[in-house]
Amino acid sequence: MGKDVIIACDFNSKDEVMNFLDKFQEEKPFVKIGMELFYSAGPDIVREIKARGHKIFLDLKLHDIPNTVKKSMAVLSNLDVDMTNLHAAGTKAMMTAGLEGLTREDGSRPILIAVTQLTSTSEEAMHQDIWIDKPMDETVMHYAKNAMEAGLDGVVCSPLEAGKVHEHCGAKFLTITPGVRFADGDVGDQKRVMTPAQAKEIGSDYIVVGRPITQAEDPVEAYRRCVREFIG
Ligand code: C5P
Fold it and tell me: Cα of 106 to ligand 1 centre, how many Å?
Protein backbone atom coordinates (compact mmCIF):
# COMPACT_ATOMS: atom_id res chain seq x y z
CA MET A 1 0.00 0.00 0.00
CA GLY A 2 2.09 2.84 -1.33
CA LYS A 3 1.66 6.57 -1.05
CA ASP A 4 -0.52 8.10 -3.74
CA VAL A 5 -2.41 11.18 -4.87
CA ILE A 6 -6.17 10.57 -5.19
CA ILE A 7 -8.10 13.01 -7.39
CA ALA A 8 -11.55 13.88 -5.98
CA CYS A 9 -13.72 13.69 -9.12
CA ASP A 10 -16.51 15.87 -7.74
CA PHE A 11 -18.41 16.15 -11.02
CA ASN A 12 -22.18 15.79 -11.36
CA SER A 13 -22.33 13.83 -14.57
CA LYS A 14 -20.65 11.01 -16.37
CA ASP A 15 -19.80 13.25 -19.35
CA GLU A 16 -17.96 15.73 -17.17
CA VAL A 17 -15.89 13.09 -15.41
CA MET A 18 -15.06 11.26 -18.64
CA ASN A 19 -14.02 14.52 -20.36
CA PHE A 20 -11.79 15.24 -17.41
CA LEU A 21 -10.20 11.77 -17.40
CA ASP A 22 -9.65 11.96 -21.18
CA LYS A 23 -6.99 14.59 -20.47
CA PHE A 24 -4.83 11.95 -18.81
CA GLN A 25 -3.16 10.07 -21.63
CA GLU A 26 0.05 8.92 -19.95
CA GLU A 27 -0.79 8.33 -16.31
CA LYS A 28 -3.86 6.70 -14.77
CA PRO A 29 -4.52 8.54 -11.52
CA PHE A 30 -6.26 7.03 -8.49
CA VAL A 31 -9.70 8.70 -8.43
CA LYS A 32 -12.31 9.29 -5.75
CA ILE A 33 -15.96 8.90 -6.73
CA GLY A 34 -18.44 10.41 -4.31
CA MET A 35 -22.15 10.11 -3.65
CA GLU A 36 -23.29 12.71 -6.21
CA LEU A 37 -21.71 10.93 -9.15
CA PHE A 38 -22.50 7.41 -7.90
CA TYR A 39 -26.14 8.25 -7.25
CA SER A 40 -26.56 10.02 -10.59
CA ALA A 41 -24.57 7.72 -12.87
CA GLY A 42 -24.97 4.41 -11.01
CA PRO A 43 -22.52 1.53 -10.55
CA ASP A 44 -21.64 1.50 -14.27
CA ILE A 45 -19.56 4.62 -13.76
CA VAL A 46 -17.30 2.60 -11.47
CA ARG A 47 -16.98 -0.22 -14.01
CA GLU A 48 -16.18 2.21 -16.84
CA ILE A 49 -13.54 4.17 -14.95
CA LYS A 50 -12.04 0.93 -13.70
CA ALA A 51 -11.93 -0.42 -17.27
CA ARG A 52 -9.88 2.64 -18.23
CA GLY A 53 -7.23 1.49 -15.79
CA HIS A 54 -7.82 3.81 -12.83
CA LYS A 55 -7.86 2.78 -9.17
CA ILE A 56 -11.05 3.84 -7.43
CA PHE A 57 -11.83 5.11 -3.94
CA LEU A 58 -15.62 4.86 -3.64
CA ASP A 59 -16.55 7.43 -1.01
CA LEU A 60 -20.06 6.46 0.09
CA LYS A 61 -19.55 6.67 3.89
CA LEU A 62 -21.85 3.81 4.91
CA HIS A 63 -23.64 4.03 8.29
CA ASP A 64 -26.45 1.59 9.06
CA ILE A 65 -27.15 -1.57 11.06
CA PRO A 66 -24.28 -4.09 10.80
CA ASN A 67 -26.20 -6.57 8.65
CA THR A 68 -27.11 -3.94 6.05
CA VAL A 69 -23.56 -2.58 5.95
CA LYS A 70 -22.18 -6.09 5.57
CA LYS A 71 -24.44 -6.88 2.60
CA SER A 72 -23.84 -3.50 0.98
CA MET A 73 -20.08 -3.87 1.32
CA ALA A 74 -20.29 -7.23 -0.45
CA VAL A 75 -21.91 -5.43 -3.39
CA LEU A 76 -19.17 -2.79 -3.46
CA SER A 77 -16.51 -5.48 -3.27
CA ASN A 78 -18.00 -7.12 -6.37
CA LEU A 79 -17.66 -3.77 -8.13
CA ASP A 80 -13.92 -4.23 -7.65
CA VAL A 81 -13.23 -0.83 -6.09
CA ASP A 82 -9.78 -0.36 -4.53
CA MET A 83 -10.83 1.61 -1.46
CA THR A 84 -14.11 2.42 0.28
CA ASN A 85 -15.31 3.78 3.61
CA LEU A 86 -17.88 3.86 6.42
CA HIS A 87 -18.59 5.93 9.53
CA ALA A 88 -16.75 4.91 12.70
CA ALA A 89 -19.80 6.26 14.59
CA GLY A 90 -21.67 3.16 13.42
CA THR A 91 -19.84 1.16 16.17
CA LYS A 92 -17.09 -1.44 16.12
CA ALA A 93 -19.69 -4.15 15.41
CA MET A 94 -20.77 -2.29 12.27
CA MET A 95 -17.16 -1.82 11.14
CA THR A 96 -16.39 -5.51 11.68
CA ALA A 97 -19.49 -6.48 9.72
CA GLY A 98 -18.48 -4.10 6.91
CA LEU A 99 -15.06 -5.66 6.74
CA GLU A 100 -16.57 -9.17 6.58
CA GLY A 101 -18.89 -8.14 3.78
CA LEU A 102 -16.04 -6.61 1.83
CA THR A 103 -13.80 -9.67 2.06
CA ARG A 104 -14.05 -11.91 -1.01
CA GLU A 105 -13.98 -15.70 -0.96
CA ASP A 106 -10.28 -15.73 -1.83
CA GLY A 107 -9.53 -13.46 1.15
CA SER A 108 -8.78 -10.37 -0.95
CA ARG A 109 -10.65 -7.11 -0.37
CA PRO A 110 -10.53 -3.38 -1.07
CA ILE A 111 -8.88 -1.08 1.49
CA LEU A 112 -11.47 -0.10 4.13
CA ILE A 113 -11.15 3.19 5.96
CA ALA A 114 -13.32 4.98 8.52
CA VAL A 115 -14.63 8.51 8.70
CA THR A 116 -14.15 9.77 12.28
CA GLN A 117 -15.82 13.15 12.74
CA LEU A 118 -16.55 15.06 9.55
CA THR A 119 -14.48 18.23 9.32
CA SER A 120 -17.74 20.09 8.69
CA THR A 121 -18.82 19.22 12.26
CA SER A 122 -17.61 21.87 14.70
CA GLU A 123 -16.71 20.94 18.26
CA GLU A 124 -19.77 22.94 19.39
CA ALA A 125 -22.14 21.02 17.09
CA MET A 126 -20.61 17.74 18.22
CA HIS A 127 -21.39 18.67 21.86
CA GLN A 128 -24.81 20.18 21.26
CA ASP A 129 -26.26 18.12 18.40
CA ILE A 130 -24.57 14.75 18.66
CA TRP A 131 -24.25 15.05 22.43
CA ILE A 132 -20.67 13.88 22.64
CA ASP A 133 -19.09 15.57 25.68
CA LYS A 134 -15.45 14.71 24.94
CA PRO A 135 -13.18 17.14 23.09
CA MET A 136 -12.96 16.78 19.30
CA ASP A 137 -9.36 15.53 19.13
CA GLU A 138 -9.99 12.84 21.77
CA THR A 139 -13.14 11.75 19.93
CA VAL A 140 -11.27 11.50 16.62
CA MET A 141 -8.46 9.45 18.21
CA HIS A 142 -10.97 7.18 19.99
CA TYR A 143 -12.81 6.53 16.73
CA ALA A 144 -9.50 5.87 14.96
CA LYS A 145 -8.60 3.30 17.65
CA ASN A 146 -11.99 1.65 17.32
CA ALA A 147 -11.46 1.41 13.57
CA MET A 148 -8.05 -0.15 14.10
CA GLU A 149 -9.42 -2.64 16.65
CA ALA A 150 -12.17 -3.59 14.21
CA GLY A 151 -9.45 -4.47 11.70
CA LEU A 152 -9.85 -1.53 9.32
CA ASP A 153 -6.88 -0.17 7.37
CA GLY A 154 -7.04 3.49 8.33
CA VAL A 155 -9.05 6.69 8.62
CA VAL A 156 -9.86 9.82 6.66
CA CYS A 157 -8.55 12.76 8.65
CA SER A 158 -7.23 16.29 8.40
CA PRO A 159 -3.52 16.37 7.48
CA LEU A 160 -3.08 18.13 10.83
CA GLU A 161 -4.32 15.00 12.63
CA ALA A 162 -2.35 12.45 10.61
CA GLY A 163 0.76 12.48 12.84
CA LYS A 164 -1.29 11.94 15.98
CA VAL A 165 -3.30 9.13 14.38
CA HIS A 166 -0.05 7.35 13.52
CA GLU A 167 1.18 7.86 17.11
CA HIS A 168 -2.01 6.28 18.49
CA CYS A 169 -2.59 3.57 15.91
CA GLY A 170 0.86 2.79 14.52
CA ALA A 171 2.74 3.79 11.38
CA LYS A 172 1.01 1.15 9.26
CA PHE A 173 -2.49 2.47 9.98
CA LEU A 174 -3.34 4.56 6.93
CA THR A 175 -4.18 8.24 6.95
CA ILE A 176 -6.10 9.57 3.97
CA THR A 177 -6.07 13.35 4.04
CA PRO A 178 -8.11 15.93 2.12
CA GLY A 179 -7.63 19.69 2.59
CA VAL A 180 -4.56 19.90 0.36
CA ARG A 181 -3.62 23.12 -1.45
CA PHE A 182 -0.60 24.36 -3.39
CA ALA A 183 1.43 27.04 -1.59
CA ASP A 184 0.48 29.57 -4.30
CA GLY A 185 -3.11 28.31 -4.84
CA ASP A 186 -6.66 29.22 -3.77
CA VAL A 187 -7.77 27.80 -0.41
CA GLY A 188 -11.49 27.97 -1.37
CA ASP A 189 -13.81 26.80 1.41
CA GLN A 190 -11.24 24.57 3.12
CA LYS A 191 -10.21 25.93 6.51
CA ARG A 192 -7.17 24.00 7.59
CA VAL A 193 -4.95 23.17 4.65
CA MET A 194 -1.52 21.79 3.90
CA THR A 195 0.62 21.65 0.77
CA PRO A 196 1.39 18.22 -0.72
CA ALA A 197 4.98 18.59 0.53
CA GLN A 198 3.79 19.30 4.08
CA ALA A 199 1.37 16.36 3.92
CA LYS A 200 4.33 14.17 2.94
CA GLU A 201 6.37 15.57 5.82
CA ILE A 202 3.77 14.73 8.46
CA GLY A 203 3.28 11.22 7.11
CA SER A 204 -0.03 11.21 5.21
CA ASP A 205 -0.37 8.00 3.23
CA TYR A 206 -2.81 9.26 0.59
CA ILE A 207 -3.78 12.84 -0.19
CA VAL A 208 -7.21 13.56 -1.68
CA VAL A 209 -7.03 16.56 -3.98
CA GLY A 210 -10.04 18.00 -5.79
CA ARG A 211 -10.26 21.55 -7.10
CA PRO A 212 -6.51 22.31 -7.20
CA ILE A 213 -6.43 19.67 -9.97
CA THR A 214 -9.96 19.57 -11.42
CA GLN A 215 -10.26 23.36 -11.75
CA ALA A 216 -6.65 23.95 -12.85
CA GLU A 217 -5.94 25.41 -16.27
CA ASP A 218 -3.79 22.36 -16.95
CA PRO A 219 -5.10 19.52 -14.74
CA VAL A 220 -2.45 17.05 -15.91
CA GLU A 221 0.36 19.41 -14.93
CA ALA A 222 -1.36 20.17 -11.59
CA TYR A 223 -1.62 16.41 -10.92
CA ARG A 224 2.05 15.92 -11.80
CA ARG A 225 3.01 18.76 -9.49
CA CYS A 226 1.07 17.10 -6.65
CA VAL A 227 2.82 13.80 -7.29
CA ARG A 228 6.25 15.50 -7.43
CA GLU A 229 5.65 17.35 -4.17
CA PHE A 230 4.00 14.45 -2.31
CA ILE A 231 5.89 11.43 -3.56
CA GLY A 232 9.02 13.05 -4.98
O1 C5P B 1 -11.69 20.37 -3.89
P2 C5P B 1 -11.06 19.86 -2.63
O3 C5P B 1 -9.58 19.57 -2.76
O4 C5P B 1 -11.37 20.73 -1.43
O5 C5P B 1 -11.77 18.45 -2.41
C6 C5P B 1 -11.55 17.68 -1.27
C7 C5P B 1 -12.36 16.42 -1.33
O8 C5P B 1 -12.23 15.74 -0.11
C9 C5P B 1 -13.86 16.63 -1.54
O10 C5P B 1 -14.35 15.50 -2.27
C11 C5P B 1 -14.40 16.62 -0.13
O12 C5P B 1 -15.74 16.24 -0.08
C13 C5P B 1 -13.49 15.60 0.54
N14 C5P B 1 -13.38 15.72 1.99
C15 C5P B 1 -12.96 16.87 2.61
N16 C5P B 1 -12.87 16.90 3.98
C17 C5P B 1 -13.19 15.83 4.70
C18 C5P B 1 -13.61 14.66 4.09
C19 C5P B 1 -13.70 14.64 2.71
O20 C5P B 1 -12.64 17.87 1.96
N21 C5P B 1 -13.04 15.86 6.01
Answer: 33
Q: What is the per-residue pLDDT across 90-149, written as a single tens digit (0 to 9) for each?
A: 999 999 999 999 999 999 999 999 999 988 888 999 999 999 999 999 999 999 999 999
130: exposed, middle or buried (C-beta count within 10 Å: 0-12, 13-18, 19+)?
exposed
pTM greater than 0.85: yes
Report the distance separating Cα 169 and Cα 175, nearest Å: 10
With b for 16 or more beta-carbon neighbours within 10 A and e for fewer, the 94-123 pattern comes to bbbbbbebbbeeeeebbbbbbbbbebeeee
Residue 28: active-site member: no
Q: Name the catalytic one among 3, 14, 50, 61.
A: 61
Nearest alpha-carbon partner for 17 in 226, 213, 178: 213
Is there a contact between 34 and 10 (Cβ–Cβ < 8 Å)? Answer: yes
Using one digit for the tens of pLDDT, what is the confidence trace for 204-228? 999 999 999 999 999 999 999 999 9
Ligand 1 centroid to residue 191 C-alpha, Å? 11
